[in-house]
Amino acid sequence: MSDTHAHSVAFVRTEPLPELPPPPGETGMVKWMQQNLFSSIPSSILTLVSLYVIYLLVAFVAPWMANGIWNTDSLAECRTALDGATGACFSVISERWNQLLFGFSYPTEFYWRPGLAFILLFVAAAPVMFFDLPRKMLIFTGLYPFIAFWLIWGGTIYTPLFALAGVVVGYLVYSRYVKDSFAMGFFGGVIAAFITWFIGGYIVDAIAPAEPFLEAVASRNMGGFMLNMILGVVCVSLSLPLGIVLALGRQSDMPIIKWICVVFIEFIRGVPLITLLFVANVVLAFFLPPGTTFDLILRVIIMITMFSAAYIAEVIRGGLAALPKGQYEAADSLGLDYAQAMRLIILPQALKISIPGIVNVAVGLFKDTVLVSVISMFDLLGMIRGPILSSTEWNGVYWELFMAASVLFFVVCYGISQYSQWLERRLATDHR
Amino acid sequence: MTSVTDPPQGSFRLSMLLNDTRYRSYTFQFIALVLLIAFMAYLGINLVRNLAAQGLNISFSFLGDPAGYDINQRPIEYDSQSTHLRAAVVGILNTLIVAFLACVTATIFGVTAGVLRLSSNWVVRKLMSFYVEIFRNIPVLIWIIIIFSIMTVAMPAPRAFRGDNATSSMLFESFAFTNRGVYSPAPVIDGAAGWIVVGVFIASIIGIFAYRKFATKKLYDTGQLLPTFWPSVAMFFVPTILVYFILGRPITLDYPSLQGFNFQGGLHLRGSLIALWFALAIYTGAFIAENVRAGIQAISKGQTEAAASLGLRPGRIMNLVVLPQALRVIIPPLISQYLNITKNSSLAIAVGYMDVTSTLGGITLNQTGRAIEAILLLMLFYLTISLLISGVMNVYNNSVKLQER
Amino acid sequence: MKKTAFYGALTVAGFAASMASAATLDDVKERGVLNCGVTTGLVGFASPDANGVWDGFDVGVCRAVAAAVLGDSDAVEFVPTTGKTRFTALASGEIDMLARNTTWTFSRDVDLKFEFVGINYYDGQGFLVPRDLGVSSAKELDGATVCIQTGTTTELNLADYFRSNNISYEPVPIETNAEGQQQYLAGACDVYTTDASGLAATRAAFENPADHVVLPEIVSKEPLGPLVRHGDNDWADVVRWSLNALIAAEELGVTSANIEELAAAPTGNPEVNRLLGTEGELGAMLGLEADWAKNAIAAGGNYGELFEKNIGENTPIGLARGLNAQWTDGGLLYSPPFR
């Protein structure tokens, strides 16, 4: 420095020099790689190993995927078309796509019905999932179960209409009496709803047209991924209220009620779902009045609902426990009774804390619906392991089918877990 | 509940059962109890009527009858003339074996992936996220079947090892990877001398733990830091190897060899066991990785910085400051993952691994038609295991609870 | 909100599942559909095709019963059952009859309280091995790995056979026939064992059936037949005689081709007349229409036609009649007389 100055005292630069680019090692790709990939010797080794693993995966899968054949009618044809080259026979997916989605006995001409129900599901779920949407959309959410039931199962529209009527009557009774006492309103509402359904059942039998607008499809004909979706959505929705009741019961001061809930929850959580499905499949019939049977799908729904209710109850119990004690005391000091305190103060907050946990349970439950394939129901996996793999045309196609099943599940589960993370971040900011 | 609000004695009215908070809870409990009993009675009466109508009965005497079927993986003596009860016990042991193996492996996978997900290395981080997301979001049953299919379709059959122009060969002349499973050398313990070697080995492992505990105590008491790594390694190898050679090599290896249709001798890990083991390990490992990551991230950065400002080296920061705190967060969900592994091992039925669901809840149920009894016993078994594990978890939780002062 | 829909469904289900009485025949007539339990898929015996239409030999029996009772061979709801679920499904009334190649054994008949109404296929357990294994007898299978489909009598027979011959084996239990094929073809087991008919059906689905041989040993008797619940004799009679009608029709030369002609007017053979309802009151005795047997036979043809169409020598499965020939041809099929 001083040397330079010594030689050039007479000249002082008046303009700044143009900025030089930083040295190549300190910027862009190189810098990033140095920091993120080769910061130390162990890190470099890890990087190289990982790159090698990725290379192996890609080298193994890419040609198989790229050579895939989509338009043959049987495995033999596909093998001929491939002519010894490595390649996937995706034609099994394109040929059996409808079966994978809807099972093999849902009438082909009615595929639009579950399809429409599926699309409407998003409309119905939107106001629950995103709080910014207009609250009026919740009305549609309330109507959705009846619409979906009617679309998927078909039959006379009076069945869902009377079911809806029961709910409306129950709600009216509830809102009439809830001011006096919550218990009275609640039980009154439930009883009124049951009476409506009971009477409605006879009326439906009497007035049902022989040729309903939407032809009825028996539960037994549900299959494929649609069955997984039905089981997942129905069981999660049903287990929420049940889970809340169980969680409140477990926290209750009344010892008998508390112990009933504890025993139920611990029992269900202690046994694998598969044994509960065995119960639904082979044992439950012994506990029903002689001669009555009801759908396997309904029995399975009952069992899975009990299963997930126990898990959701534990999540909600965690939420209840996480609420500061002050909230309970504040509710008491306002003179609210138990029902009011829970309904207006405790549950809204506890549920909000529990949402990520509930979503986790829901994702787990949705994945567990494939277990029904073990009890001879043709869900997505059941379709693959049963009719498709045992058919003469596609005997011996494994990877393509399992890949299709994996992709379908991955898309749904990954989507939900991303939503859950987004929600967690959003709820976290609310607290600040 | 002061004396002011106390109602006058003897003025109890029926309506108070509903309106007075002191009595209302009794009313509710009474109603709940009556409903419960009524419900149970309803189910019981239905059961009795159904059984009577079909001329059946509930009886556990079938457990004493000969099972009549064979089981391939037999941890204890069993043949087709053994009883159904013994078949169930074989199944229980098989369940415990696969659950134990899967728990150990899942922990290794999970901890590795969880730590690497926090690595500063971008590729490794992304690869681990990929692993976690892929395995977490696809049902475990599908993974079990996929890995089983890989085992059977992609591995060579034993006959590929046969003849002069065999297409497959054994690894180091001692391991054979076939589609019937993996055959590896099995140690054969030769009389008392062999057992002494085993005893020495176990003793030295206990010694390692004792030494480490001693070192930690010394560190906390006096601040003096004893070396642990090299002494541990020495204790692990030296005594056992010394005794082994002194006693004249009493433990030999039994190598598998191809005889007749199959490899004979050695240790046979069946394809169904491997499929179930790895599928459970790799699937649950993804969940454990998330728990580990959350556990480490739950330790506030201040702790690390405080430790660093005290002059601790990064390794020590991890061992002495971060891990002890993180473990408190990690272990409870870890134990419930172990519970999940045990319960998910019942999916063995999909690959024909003979666990308790396949023996008692599978073949025994099919052969005897005793559905209610078999499923009841099956549920009781899993319930017992779950309660045991929950008990362990509660004991642990109490022992690591923050000592609040 | 969903909770209520659920209760709604329960209520509706409650009405739909009105008390099924002991009289299965009345239930089936009222319902208009026969619930028939079949396998989850075994080519030739019962399997759904690409459009979900069930087809096969056992399915033919279900259709014949439906035609006899309801006059419509399509009025059948096929309920797929596994080895584990089939008996409970029948006992609980979920299905009216089970036609799922089920072996008639003492304990199933007596202890599990089922009524086997007859035998529609005389089978026996056999062994399938690859030709290049060089095995010509099951006695040479010492130390072999054997794939067995669980939930059948097969595993018991196998244990007995190997035990009595004092040879060892390694059992590999598998859940479905498709998985058995996968294991066997990959060489994960040396031998595949199940009923000989099932082996033939499985082998037929192979790419190169000629590379595999069925060993000569048949190690068990497997009389397969449809069954119903104990205690409902009227319904058992309907199923039994529908099956017998198929067998008798073959013996009497009544086929789906000539049945219209034979049933139009009484023929010279009184037994044909009684069978087809042009003479006597057999249908009324069963509580069915007079032309019940005609419908049953017209549904898929007589026993011989069903056999040839689904599993006979001209199908990929290629089973010979063997024991399942009429007694007049040296087989075991022998229908009691219609009188």
Here the CATH topology of the domain at 84-166 and 271-400 in chain B equals MetI-like fold
Low-confidence stretches of chain B: none
As a percent range, the share of strand residues of chain A is under 5%
Q: Span between N and C termini of chain A?
A: 53 Å
Largest interface (CB < 8 Å): A-C, 66 and 53 residues
Helix content of chain B: 55-70%
Q: List SSEs of chain A in N-to-C order.
A: HHHHHHHHHHHHHHHHH
User: By CATH's scheme, which homologous superfamily of the largest domain in chain A applies?
Assistant: MetI-like
- Largest beta sheet of chain A, briefly? none
Shape of chain B: globular
Task: Give the second-level CATH assignment, the architecture of the domain at 84-166 and 271-400 in chain B.
Answer: Orthogonal Bundle
| CATH class category of the largest domain in chain A | Mainly Alpha
Mean pLDDT, all residues of chain B: 84
Task: Specify the number of helices of chain B.
Answer: 12
Describe what this molecule looks like in 3D:
The complex is a heterotrimer of chains A (432), B (405) and C (339). Helix content of chain A is 71%, strand content 0%. The longest helix of chain A is centred in the last third of the chain and has 32 residues, at 399-430. The radius of gyration of chain A is 30 Å and the shape is globular. Chain A contains 17 helices and no strands. With 432 residues, chain A is mostly helical. Chain A has 3 domains: 1-66, no CATH class; 91-106 and 217-430, MetI-like fold, CATH 1.10.3720; 157-213, no CATH class. Chain B is mostly helical and 405 residues long. Helices cover 65% and strands 6% of the residues of chain B. Chain B has helices at residues 16-19, 21-54, 84-116, 122-136, 140-154, 191-222, 229-246, 271-298, 301-309, 314-344, 356-368, 371-400; strands spanning 176-178, 181-184, 186-189, 251-254, 257-259, 262-264, 267-270. Chain B has a 3-stranded antiparallel beta sheet with strand order 1-2-7. A two-stranded antiparallel ribbon of chain B has the order 3-4. In chain B, strand 1 and strand 2 form a beta hairpin. Chain B is globular. Chain C folds into 2 domains: 22-122 and 224-329, D-Maltodextrin-Binding Protein, domain 2, CATH 3.40.190; 125-220, Periplasmic binding protein-like II (D-Maltodextrin-Binding Protein, domain 2). Chain C is 39% helix and 16% strand. In chain C, the strands form 5 sheets. A 5-stranded mixed beta sheet of chain C has the order 10-9-11-8-12. In chain C, helix 3 packs antiparallel against helix 13. By secondary structure, chain C is of the alpha/beta class. The radius of gyration of chain C is 21 Å and the shape is globular. Classes of the chains: A mainly alpha (432), B mainly alpha (405), C alpha/beta (339). At the A-C interface, helix 5, helix 7, helix 8, helix 9 and helix 10 of A face helix 1, strand 2, strand 4 and helix 7 of C.
